[in-house]
Amino acid sequence: MSSVTLFEYEAGEHEVEKASNSYLMSLIALIAGLPFPIVNLIATLVFYFSNRNGTYFVRWHCTQALVSQFSLLCMNSVGFWWTVSIIFGPEILSSNYIAYIITIFLFNVIEFIATIYTAIQTRKGIHVEWWFYGNLTNLICKP
Amino acid sequence: MKKVLIQGLFSLLFFFAIWFALRQIDWMSKLNVEQTTKLTEEKLGNIIWDAYDRTDTEIKNEKINISLDSILTKICTSNHLDKSKIKIHLMQSSEINAYALPNNHLIINTGLIVAVENEAELCGVMCHEISHIEHNHVMNKLVKEIGLSFLISMTTGKGNSEATAKLMRLLSSTAYDRKLEKEADIQAVDYMIKANINPTPFADFLYRLSLNESSNVKYFNWISTHPDSKDRGKYIIEYCKNKFHRNKSILRIETWKEMKDCLNNK
Asked: How many domains does chain B have?
């Protein structure tokens, strides 16, 4: 799911703290955003924009934290509106729905654990690249 | 770029593969969802029926009730349906209507029995409503029209009399969607054929009422809430063509006449 690689330069103490905070921010957003998935994205987006002029290391990790939120946003939004339409609308509770909720729960747990792990590693100055999101960030974020 | 696309595609496939694998498990049975739904339906059915019982008059005529019960028994035994779960009620009302309530209550208005010309027409309407019960259309319609939260709040005692009245109106005066109506019609014809009841009079009844609908719309509730009655009559005739072989009356002619006379005089 993630791999430890060498970053282009050794990040300073101030940088690793800020980069680690971007994951903590997305972690808090993840918890707050469970009932309302858009909260996830907005919180991470705010943190990203406030650090877009930061150093490469900070920007890189802010971007990885941000892009990783997009897929969760899509999954959780579908789950959220599906639930709403079951409670207040025409949809009926089905095995299909329960299977979907379990699936997004698993993905949320994986993301949660990965976020904590990456926040700790980044705070130590270790560069962690996630599967898919790491490569995507490399494409988006340039030195 | 290519690597990112492949990884993205793989992640997407991974997500759908897990979802697909989990879909193979019958979560509804595993989590007792169906049991809970059944309890909710039972409670809801009792609340609504109590409300009907308070506002409308149920006919407790032994002869008529036995006749209706005989028809129900014949339909159920011929089709291997659990007759004991269906609770049939005859209500004093000139409105030509019959409808199903949650928890397998089948309501028939006296106006319907007065309007039908023979036993087979009544059987057709009864089979149609039994079909709604058997396919769980009643609860599906309620959930669709007013939402699960409203229904649960009713069963937990938070529903008021206005909410109950809304449910009663909904159940007695609005139709199911076209697909469910057709499903109930076709199933009703199958029930009738298996019970040796000719389905043609059922189609005739639909057609006849649809012709009279404009002049007597307020009395023809069953037909006015079931759209495209002429079409329904047509596809019923089409469906039962060459399928029905012999007609066997359930009630004796005298019993049927007695029942009609009794209700005509009420």
From this structure: 1
